[in-house]
Specification:
alpha/beta, Rossmann fold
């Protein structure tokens, strides 16, 4: 993957407190809006909250992968019990980021 100096990132999360830009960030609030954003833009990274209204992150990631969207995708969740890694991988995620999101963790991924 070739990444520009300022990567394009999609951040889908229904909690605005998490949506602090670290690059050229497009912020949406649900999985359906994430799919619409990805239809018109090639993002370098995609972060999807697991629990969102309209469509959750698991379903959104599965839809993106079925449509051939190849950007690395990371699941976000504040759940105390992290799902089995195999569940995230089966949905098409490349990794998991616990919430609250730590800026250092985002920078490591970016």
């Amino acid at each position: 993957m070739t990444v520009s100096a300022r990567p394009k990132i999609l951040f889908a999360d229904d909690n605005d407190a998490v949506l602090e830009p670290v690059a050229d960030v497009t912020c949406v609030e649900d999985g359906e809006a994430a799919l619409a954003a990805c239809a018109g833009t090639r993002f370098d990274l995609v972060f999807l909250d697991i629990h969102m209204p309209v469509q959750d992150g698991m379903a959104a990631c599965s839809s993106l992968r079925e449509g051939g969207y190849a950007a690395p995708g990371f699941a976000l969740s504040a759940d105390l019990e992290v799902r089995d890694r195999a569940e995230y991988e089966a949905a098409g995620f490349d990794g998991f980021v616990p919430k609250p999101v730590q800026p250092r963790e985002l920078l490591r991924i970016v």
